[in-house]
Amino acid sequence: xxxxxxxxxxxxxxxxxxxxxxxxxxxxxxxxxxxxxxxxxxxxxxxxxxxxxxxxxxxxxxxxxxxxxxxxxxxxxxxxxxxxxxxxxxxxxxxxxxxxxxxxxxxxxxxxxxxxxxxxxxxxxxxxxxxxxxxxxxxxxxxxxxxxxxxxxxxxxxxxxxxxxxxxxxxxxxxxxxxxxxxxxxxxxxxxxxxxxxxxxxxxxxxxxxxxxxxxxxxxxxxxxxxxxxxxxxxxxxxxxxxxxxxxxxxxxxxxxxxxxxxxxxxxxxxxxxxxxxxxxxxxxxxxxxxxxxxxxxxxxxxxxxxxxxxxxxxxxxxxxxxxxxxxxxxxxxxxxxxxxxxxxxxxxxxxxxxxxxxxxxxxxxxxxxxxxxxxxxxxxxxxxxxxxxxxxxxxxxxxxxxxxxxxxxxxxxxxxxxxxxxxxxxxxxxxxxxxxxxxxxxxxxxxxxxxxxxxxxxxxxxxxxxxxxxxxxxxxxxxxxxxxxxx
Length: 488
Known about the structure:
55% of the residues lie in helices and 15% in strands. The protein is an alpha+beta fold. It folds into 3 domains: 46-172, no CATH class; 239-321, Orthogonal Bundle (Helix Hairpins); 327-483, Histidine kinase-like ATPase, C-terminal domain (Heat Shock Protein 90, 2-Layer Sandwich). It is rod-shaped, with a radius of gyration of 53 Å.
């Protein structure tokens, strides 16, 4: 049988309570029996001085213990006379029987409790010993010297015998046994009643404690069925509340990822469909004889194929960087040298677009080097993509200012181009895949919309950061920060 967490928690709480009650019952009943036995023993011990005095008077009268050995009635009468003359008469009378009417208890009779009860001095563990500790009156089989308390019987300053009282080891009187059994039953009923109360409290408590877990289970089932808009209430600030909050964060992330994935697929489909539609249209027009198959037509087809090839290549590189499949062979590199080489290689492309490029390196070293831990090939790819992006989206006759400097333990690169600029609303989306500003930085410039996303992945692969802002030249400013002592 499979039990839910609710019932497991209920059984755990109830079992813990029952164990506590069982321990209380056992300990309480043990203490009661021990205390009650000591109480009974103390009552009996209060009779001993009167008995010892009665025995001393008997010995002084007869001069020996022989009359008691030969006549047991004299032993009983001696006990009766001693008890009746003791100061414990009212105590014994009260303990042995309850008066039927107010007032003092009536005198003892031969059938009273202390003549027949084991609590009376005639009980089997009461013995009379002579001066040599030989048993004169009593049952030899129940005499145990190590458990006996001997009270000397003194006559004329001479010990003529001993009154032996064996310590009680257990309850044997029927009335006391009944009383002890009654107390045991009451202890048991109390423990049973407390267990029922605990059950009535533990079950609602288990239901209340497991409610957040049931809500998480229901929410998880909704997520597995694709309902990413499922949310559960946060009812507390403890671990369960933190679990509910984390679940809501997970659900929100899954919902956003699904939306992003759907948008991503739609954007890729759109990007691929555009050059394919152009190619299909031009080829069909050539087949129908509307457009001649000449050099201009082939150049147009080649341009669209290059556009499609660039898009597929960028998608492949971006997917590799997302999966962590890009290999980074990091080592100590001279970042200023890599940046200078990238600018030199792109000078012809800059001249073709009519853009003036200026590079400023601020190094604390005399040789102008700025070193860091990085992959030279990936850093070269980063600078090539940034240069291509600037040349593609900067108006002819514009400028590009690049500054490389070292700040404490970081390397900072500032990339500023001239008009056209980017609105505040578009700045936060520039690193999204396939995102284009719908003004001058658009598809007409030939970009795939993946260049800055690839740049961001390369920068993050070097444990750096890249941010976008407004350029003082009127265009876009990109700020890249690399940790100079990044770990491989």
